[in-house]
Amino acid sequence: MTDLPPHDGRAPLSRRAARAAATGSESSAERPASARTPAAGTLDALFTGEVDTHDIGRVPTRHDRDRRKSRIAKWVVLIVILAIVGGIGAGAAWVWSTYETQIRSVMGWEEPKDFQPGEATGEVLVTIVTGDNGSTISQTLFDQGVTKTASAFYDYLIASVQDPPFQPGVYALQERMTSEAALALLLDPASKRQEAAQLREGLTVEQSLPILAEGTGVPVEDFQAAVADPSAYGVSAASLEGWLFPATYQFDPGTSAAQIIQTLVNRTVESLDRAGVPADQRERILTIASIIEREARLDEDFYKVSRVIENRLADGMLLQMDSTAQYGAGELDGGSVSTSEGAQFQDNDWNTYVREGLPIGPIANPGDNAIDAAMKPADGPWLYFVTWNMDTGETIFSETFEQHEAGIAQWHAWCDANDNRGC
């Protein structure tokens, strides 16, 4: 223990205490209260955590000032460090964005080939055409922003050992999809975008065009322009009447009127070829088939009506088909099987009441059954027929005019009993 000299009989003071006492004494003696340094225990100091409530109003000492300088220095150092770290982060981000490929190559890091789940957005219409396979579809998906890389989709098919039967069409997908999600939509019929139109047998070109326009969204004016030149579709006739095959069609969005008409004409050619119609006989067979389509009601009667036409032509008789007179006079929409007196005697190229032989061309668009019947008429001696029951389509075929008159009488009786419905 170190011996300290006595100090007025009181306990010895530490050097720090003695120095503080001396400093405080000098301050009190030399400066008036009004000229004292502002108190260290101000509200600002309180809220910054430099003092507590016990320090309010206390005069700052030299030690207080040193502590304050020390804190300021620490904050400056911290700010400098943060600035350096922030600069390094920004620089690193720039380097990564600029040299990502090179960095991955050097480090051996493989770049993700697919987008992550949950990134998909928007809508993309992807077209698959006949002959497309996994490789070509993979490129298409990349080109349209669906997948991240050109090989992502194909690599997924290989890795998952899949060889799905892709169907041609237009499909609604999204941008930034995973390959798995893209495949699911390509195989989902609900994602296939198509426009549909249904043409029934026996309609004329004029009746068909508004139906096509409504079903496809293509303006009817476009269809009217498209059918104006039959030669554009390989048809040598003056009109496309008879060449717009009746069926239900589905078209991809964006299909033009000309492309749609070509599809219908092609389908007619298929039916003609299937029935064995020679190319130079197509217009004649379509003309006969169109009459059959408008006159016969039951499938089994198609072949009998075909025979009546051939028998009357062979005997040099006028065909006298009401459907031809109605077409020539523009009365096909009348809803009646009977021909008005004006239409029956109107002189035009379609009216077989006044024109010998077949009309100048088809009067409607026939289907498969009518085309087949035109090529393969049933065997029989019939020269006449009359559909006597408008509800069931039952028809009487006759060899003589007297038998035909009896059939007509039966028809009149049915009409009288049924308020002339359809008569």
Automatic annotation (TrEMBL):
It holds the Pfam family YceG. It catalyses: a peptidoglycan chain = a peptidoglycan chain with N-acetyl-1,6-anhydromuramyl-[peptide] at the reducing end + a peptidoglycan chain with N-acetylglucosamine at the non-reducing end. It comes from the Bacteria. It is a single-pass membrane protein. Residues 1-44 are annotated as: Disordered. Residues 11-40 have a biased composition (Low complexity). Keywords: Cell membrane, Cell wall biogenesis/degradation, Lyase, Membrane, Transmembrane, Transmembrane helix. InterPro entries: MLTG-like. Residues 1-10 have a biased composition (Basic and acidic residues). The chain crosses the membrane at residues 75-96. It is found in: Cell membrane. GO terms for cellular component: plasma membrane. GO terms for biological process: cell wall organization; peptidoglycan biosynthetic process. Functions as a peptidoglycan terminase that cleaves nascent peptidoglycan strands endolytically to terminate their elongation. Belongs to the transglycosylase MltG family. This is Endolytic murein transglycosylase.
